[in-house]
């Protein structure tokens, strides 16, 4: 009798699951949207959830399949979560720019009580996002970039010393690791006002906790998937994506720096100084709320996490492509030396602005290897997709496969070829405005775009002025992307030979 009851319960559970998945996987079909066959229980996300492909490559493949069929959008199931993937650039521009009022939010998990650092600007929604972005954007003006420039220059000297040591030791440089440490040093100083010593110390405390924040195993991938599929349940369970000891470290760091500066009347040219000033303004201006230490830490961590990934990826792949394209490297080096000669051999903000081919090389590297790889939005009010019969319901998640757009031969013939001339003024003007979006587009584009670009350009100028780079045989080709990473990263280390020039 007990066995019969257990069997009946099991059959009921199985039947319930079948009905649940069947109903979930009928969402797009009911709305007349074409979808490829699904796989239980992954939907269309099996390659990512089983760590066979990165998130960005998975969506790029989906983009390519739909473009071949001349479809402007397609239905995608992230397990049971229905997602609308847009493959037409005019519709992409509608979502990101023209009709932004209907897509103001990102579908990111935020639980500031259980996971304080999740309250970074990138994740925030609605009016709170607007309020915080307006305040924090003061840190990213051109004037502030000029003030922070000294930070970049100081750290490039240490970077040059490391390259010189590689030459003396007759060993290649691991650019993925080296530029990650360089990015950590510059962003740590500009964001938190501390010396991270990433280039000089492999085991610095800041580096230890920063790297732990970005490490993700299979459990982390699955937890991320659950936060996307059922954020309400994860919120009630007080789930965290950032480990508690990492949160505690960064919150204490920001609190200690803020207390020290306010007690000793110390001011510096960095993000945390701006946040201290915003906090004081909230204390003294009627109607403005005082920013808490947790909120300050979340903004500093958001600045760090976005800048770290962007800069590391951009620098790593820019040097990788220049090492494989000696003509482009020599052309860029000639421009660098010509401009520096006119500026007393000094690398300055104004000198960087006088290097158009530098901008073309960095832009092409960001086209081929966009750090985000994928843009996400959430429909915030019912919306009729222009030129179609589809009504997008409030709450629907949108995916824009940036990697697919950037490799689309409609915009970039021979897309796997590194060609800086794609970004000459005339070629840029002839392309669709949404054909290049490594920093996003519209009101929710990347706040730290200027900072990230300047950081990359300073490193390129300083290193190419002194050293020549070629590809080392230890580098595994073709490049594959880390399936565990939420940003676009090489799965393996990238080694380059370096010599004085």
In terms of topology, how is this protein built?
Elements: H1 2-24, H2 27-30, H3 46-49, H4 55-68, E1 73-78, E2 81-86, H5 89-98, H6 126-136, H7 142-169, E3 173-174, H8 175-192, H9 205-214, H10 218-229, H11 231-236, H12 244-264, H13 271-284, H14 293-324, H15 326-342, H16 349-352, H17 356-368, E4 375-378, E5 383-384, E6 391-392, E7 397-400, H18 402-406, H19 425-430, H20 449-464, E8 467-471, E9 495-500
Parallel strand pairs: 2-7
Antiparallel strand pairs: 1-2, 3-9, 4-7, 5-6, 8-9
- Main beta-sheet annotation: 4 strands, mixed
The percentage helix is: 40-55%
Instruction: Tell me the CATH superfamily of the largest domain.
Output: Cytochrome P450
CATH topology of the largest domain: Cytochrome p450
Helical/strand content category: alpha+beta
Shape: globular
Beta content comes to 5-15%
Number of domains: 2
Q: Calculate the mean pLDDT score and round it.
A: 91
The strand count comes to 9
Cα distance spanning the termini? 84 Å
> Which CATH architecture of the largest domain would you pick?
Orthogonal Bundle
What's the CATH class of the largest domain, please? Mainly Alpha
Radius of gyration equals: 24 Å
Number of helices: 20
- What is the topology, as strand order, of the major beta sheet? 1-2-7-4
User: What low-confidence regions span 5 or more consecutive residues with pLDDT below 50?
Assistant: none
Secondary-structure element order, as H and E?
HHHHEEHHHEHHHHHHHHHHEEEEHHHEE
GO cellular component, one term: endoplasmic reticulum membrane
Cofactor: heme
Protein name: Cytochrome P450
Membrane topology: Peripheral membrane protein
